[in-house]
Amino acid sequence: MHNLVIILGDQLNIEMSSLSGFDKETDVVLMSEVREEATYVKHHKKKIAFVFSAMRHFAKELTAKGYKVVYVEYDAPENLGSLYEQAKWACNRQSIAQPFSAVKVAQPGEYRLFDEVSTWQRKLGLPVEITADNRFIATQQFFADWAEGRKQYRMEFFYRELRKSTGTLMDAKQPVGGKWNYDAENRKSFGKDPDVPDRTHTAPDAITQDVLKLVKTTFSEHFGQLEGFDFAVTREGALAVLREFIETRLVDFGQYQDAMLEGNPWLFHSHIGLYLNAGLLMPREVINAAEEAYLNGRVPINSAEGFIRQILGWREYVRGFYWYFMPALKQQNYLNAQRNLPDFYWTGDTKMNCLSQCVNDTKKYAYAHHIQRLMVLGNFALLTGIKPEAINEWYLLVYADAYEWVELPNVSSMVLFADGGQLASKPYAASGSYINKMSNYCKNCHYSVKEKTGPQACPFNYLYWHFLYRHQQRFEKNPRMAMIYRTMTKIDETKFNHMLEDADTFLLRLENNEEV
Ligand code: FAD
Ligand code: DLZ
Ligand code: SF4
């Protein structure tokens, strides 16, 4: 057998299933930087720089270990622009090796590419083996077995199954500490002068410098700032980021995981999402490191459990959810949201300080933390009814950790409630008071978070009630929303009508692309 093993830009781990059984005498790895993957959405410049540099470093690492690697750089004359064309080229290029008897590739993370690769066997006239995507702990079948026969698919119960089956944070059959979930202890905001440790900065080496030059000239039209690139681009570098997180920030991760701070999106988060999603880190080793820190008494249970839940719970769950509900998930629009994406999602130019800060963090770093994505950027999209395809495209291209398998469930199901409640039991809608409680954004805002109506009122306040009012029929029977609908009936009618009018005026301004 002479195998051509294709390694995609987010499969950068020597333990990938497609590399298992690799014969260094006869097999060849193919990696290519291709136009199709780099431009199917206009990814943030920092994301492309990260993926290309990490790919080049991984190819070098494989070569040093004796693997035969054909690496096609973006500007190379033999670059044909798509993964398929490049695979065909490699198969036809007799000089690389003996004619290949098979092509191997680990299952692509995104449905679009999986669908495409599934046609290769017919088109290439060669066996194409799609091996399991082993960058996750749970298989797709594990999720499907759990989901079978359920009406609701709540992360919490899936997570408990994984805690039990992997023995993570378990004391025999009971959760360590007696509780499955410590969320109630994880909602602290910052005081006046929070002492936040710096994140890990990785200086670009020569390979990264070359990639930065390429991205600067080739992808100048893409979103985001390239300057200040300091992501790790190797497994070793990613492990260093993980280590520093475990040693310096995990201890406070729990209590501050929902807090936001002007000018600093990094806070006590781990900043490893991009490394996990590119294969530089594997979820099991990350979970083990956090569990060990708890068992050694270095971090409290609410931090260790809260962090592990993000990875063993949310990350595994959304990936299973994606494959279980695709391709239908992409078409969902339960709330019939039809609005175009406002320009300020690209520019950050809005008088709403929370949104301006979160967009600017995103532009600058290709990063914003979970609550910025959910309760500021997402909340606004939900309340104003931005159409799923527009806001999904935005989220897919702006973050360095974004791939459709994780972005789509988070945006369509969690943020937009577009699946009608398969993922979330109620929409994550909130007024300005939530943002004010969890951040210091409101202090520097043109609008006043305390005011509910009038030109100075925080738009989130009246948009919140407008949202609840226009979807009343859908939500008033939802037991988790009964209280808020009871509160709604108690609001003075004149004041309520005033809020609805303010919301209509605001939505009209948004539609006309006027400054808001
Ligand atoms: P931490 O806060 O330190 O969390 C640790 C890890 O847990 C993350 O690295 C990630 O691997 C995992 N995790 C946490 N929350 C989630 C979640 N909801 N879904 C899946 N994994 C999770 N995450 C992505 O990896 N890619 C995306 O494209 C993405 N898009 C999102 C869009 C929206 C609207 C929302 C609300 C969330 C999105 N998330 C996405 C989840 C989460 O915001 C990011 O994983 C996290 O902010 C990455 O930063 P971190 O590594 O510092 O995470
Ligand atoms: C994200 C990305 C980018 C920007 N470029 C490439 C590339 O040039 N070559 C490649 O093999 N992979 C790239 N990727 C990652 C793929 O888009 C990813 O493998 C699919 O989205 C499936 O998850
Ligand atoms: Fe955002 Fe409203 Fe606070 Fe301004 S007042 S920062 S718009 S929540």
Name the features.
mainly alpha, Rossmann fold, Serine Threonine Protein Phosphatase 5, Tetratricopeptide repeat, 5-stranded parallel sheet, two-stranded antiparallel sheet, globular, binds flavin-adenine dinucleotide, binds ligand DLZ, binds iron/sulfur cluster
Strand line-up in the sheet with most strands:
3-2-1-4-5
Number of domains: 3
Bound small molecules, deduplicated: flavin-adenine dinucleotide, ligand DLZ, iron/sulfur cluster
Number of helices: 22
Assign the CATH superfamily of the largest domain. DNA Cyclobutane Dipyrimidine Photolyase, subunit A, domain 3
Q: Describe the main β-sheet briefly.
A: 5 strands, parallel
Helix content: 40-55%
Which band does the percent of strand residues land in?
5-15%
- Secondary-structure element series: EEHHEHEHHEHHEEHHHHHHHHHHHHHHH
Oligomer: single chain
Ordered list of secondary-structure elements with their pairings:
Elements: E1 3-6, E2 28-32, H1 35-39, H2 45-64, E3 69-72, H3 83-92, E4 102-106, H4 111-117, H5 120-124, E5 128-131, H6 140-147, H7 155-166, E6 170-171, E7 174-175, H8 206-218, H9 235-256, H10 273-278, H11 283-295, H12 301-325, H13 344-347, H14 353-365, H15 370-384, H16 388-398, H17 404-415, H18 432-438, H19 459-470, H20 472-475, H21 482-490, H22 493-511
Parallel strand pairs: 1-2, 1-4, 2-3, 4-5
Antiparallel strand pairs: 6-7
This protein binds flavin-adenine dinucleotide, ligand DLZ and iron/sulfur cluster.
